[in-house]
Amino acid sequence: MARPQQAANVSSLPPFPEGWFFIATRDAVQKAGLIQRTWMGEEIVIWSDPAGQICIAKSVCPHLGSDLGPEAGARVVGGRLVCPFHGFEFEITGQCVATPSGAPARSAKLDLFEAREIEGLIFGWWGLGGRASQWQLPDVPQSVDDWTDLQIRTIRFDGHPQETSENSVDIAHLSYIHGYHNVTHETPVLIDGPRLESRFGFSTTRKIAKLAKLTMDVSAIAHVVGLGYSFVEFQEHSIGIDARLWVLATPVDGTLIDLSIVSRMRTLHKPERPIAGLRFLPTRMRAPIVNKFIADLQIRDVQQDVVIWSRKHYVPRPRLVRTDGEIGKYREYCAQFYPGERQCEPSRL
Ligand code: FES
Ligand SMILES: [Fe+2]
Fold first, then answer.
1. Residue closest to 168 by CA, chosen among 245, 250, 243
2. Among 9, 226, 254, 260, which one is least packed by beta carbons within 10 Å?
3. Is 105 in the pocket of ligand 1 (CB under 6 A)?
4. pLDDT 10s per residue in the chain (349 long)?
5. 88 and 194 co-located in one domain
6. Ligand sitting nearest the alpha carbon of 261
7. What region, left, alpha or beta, does residue 210 occupy, with left being phi > 0 and alpha being psi -120 to 50 degrees?
8. Are 39 and 81 part of one and the same domain?
9. Phi/psi at 130 (5° precision)
10. Do 229 and 266 fall within a single domain?
11. Structural domain boundaries, residue 181
12. Cβ–ligand 1 contact at 212 (below 6 Å)
């Protein structure tokens, strides 16, 4: 999807903000053995050793520069990444520990990225000039037996993570684009270093299983932690749905981003009110069905946003109206993720 040319008086955002960005799930890594991605403008590989420790590395062999992705022929054997060119073997520490032709140089080491795992989602730290992590992603309360598996959908489009995260404070668009009613917003948003918390509520009426109309009465707390990570606690009051959503924006190559929508739901033991067809289902089957329904709603909303995001310009001095109050504050919050960049102040009311 090509982005229209920027107008001459509009600047653009640096493509790679500093922070933690989603790469893959642990499940996907363990199934594939070795995964290669274009991430933050470079090729990376990710794998795990038999103990489950994860390694994220630049996909370049320090010996003579071979690519280390599966398509080049690299593979993981006994938890070590084996280069396809001369067979050097790398541990998850990045250190080369064996070669077919003698002891490896101590300096033969992969370039690594710090890894962090939350609920089976693996993130890498991308720091300006390769610097170490300046802050951490907070833990989330553990989802154990009572919760469904993760539903994950990823959409790739021409966009920027600052623009997609701006949704969590852009309350006006919820009713205008997504058709929500009774939108409420607790202001001001709370900001603490890299964390931003936005609380809002809304109701929305949707068709379920092409049969009945369902009105959902939602309150949500969005925890934005940097520009790649938003965790939303979602509570639906009329049926009693308790869901967790993650909205994870990852720059691919400086133009495209991958937006992954991840959801998980607590088992619906006794819905507050009947939902078409669901009462005939055993309890353990209700939550996955409703989780899929919630995920479908999210994707439908995101697809509506993508139509705008993929074509919009970044306006550094937005001409805000009173109902946009928090957008200016959000832009000030974002400035910390571009250390060394001169920031444009948004216009004030
Ligand atoms: S380039 Fe990797 S072992 Fe030679
Ligand atoms: Fe939206």
1. 245
2. 9
3. no
4. 445 444 333 458 999 999 999 999 999 999 999 999 999 999 999 999 999 999 999 999 999 999 999 999 999 999 999 999 999 999 999 999 999 999 999 999 999 999 999 999 999 999 999 999 999 999 987 777 788 889 999 999 999 999 999 998 998 899 899 999 999 888 789 999 999 999 999 998 877 666 667 788 999 999 999 999 999 999 988 888 889 999 999 999 999 999 999 999 887 766 666 666 666 666 666 777 777 777 788 888 999 999 999 999 999 889 988 877 689 999 999 999 999 775 444 433 3
5. no
6. 2
7. left
8. yes
9. 80, 15
10. yes
11. 151-328
12. no
